[in-house]
């Protein structure tokens, strides 16, 4: 069975109906259709993946390492954010790495939010990561402000504080 396009919910439903782990051979096929949640097949697949057992978590992390930050962001917000404690424990170390990587198109903030909301790491670690990220982003804001002032030919845009 092969999903032919983003509207092929019939094939997706057939694959899901087989049940896990019998449909394990189709897991990569299903995951490949989660890149854009606007596709009709994507949300059906996301809902199914949430229902699966803990063993699926590592497949999601492996996929997240191979995709761009937009897709990773969808995986974080639509799937990993909804993990229970057991699944979250399996991906905690990767969430810490992503949370500690500012500038990843918001994936760092999403990962840190998941860790904080689920109390998956101690508060002290959250604070340490957040401070490091704030330092990074503050520098980017300062750089952007300086570019803006140069573009205005020395005219002051306004006071910069953060």
What report would you give on this structure?
- This protein is mainly α and 162 residues long.
- Helices cover 64% and strands 0% of the residues.
- Helix 1 packs parallel to helix 3 (40-51) and helix 6 (85-99) crosses helix 7.
- The model has no long low-confidence stretch (mean pLDDT 92).
Based on the coordinates given, report the CATH architecture of one domain: Alpha Horseshoe
What is the multimeric organization of the chains shown? single chain
CATH homologous superfamily heading of one domain = Domain of unknown function DUF5071
- Give the tally of β-strands: 0
Gap between N and C termini: 55 Å
- Please report the first level of CATH classification, the CATH class of one domain: Mainly Alpha
Which whole number gives the mean pLDDT? 92
- The shape, in one word, is elongated
Summarize the structure.
The chain is mostly helical. Helix content is 64%, strand content 0%. Helix 1 packs parallel to helix 3 and helix 4 packs parallel to helix 6.
């Amino acid at each position: 069975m092969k999903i032919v396009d983003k509207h092929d919910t019939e094939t997706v439903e057939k694959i899901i109906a087989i049940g896990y782990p019998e449909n394990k051979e189709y897991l990569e096929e299903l995951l490949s259709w989660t890149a854009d949640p606007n596709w009709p097949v994507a949300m059906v697949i996301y809902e199914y993946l949430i229902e699966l057992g803990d063993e699926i978590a590592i497949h999601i992390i492996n996929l997240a390492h191979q995709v761009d930050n937009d897709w990773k962001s969808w995986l974080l917000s639509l799937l990993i954010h909804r993990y229970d404690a057991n699944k979250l424990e399996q991906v905690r170390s990767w969430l810490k790495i992503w949370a500690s990587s500012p500038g990843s198109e918001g994936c760092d903030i999403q990962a840190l939010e998941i860790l904080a909301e689920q109390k998956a790491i101690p508060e002290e670690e959250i604070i340490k990561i957040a401070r490091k990220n704030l330092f990074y982003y503050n520098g980017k804001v300062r750089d952007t402000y300086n570019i803006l002032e140069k573009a205005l030919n020395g005219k002051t845009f306004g006071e910069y504080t953060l």
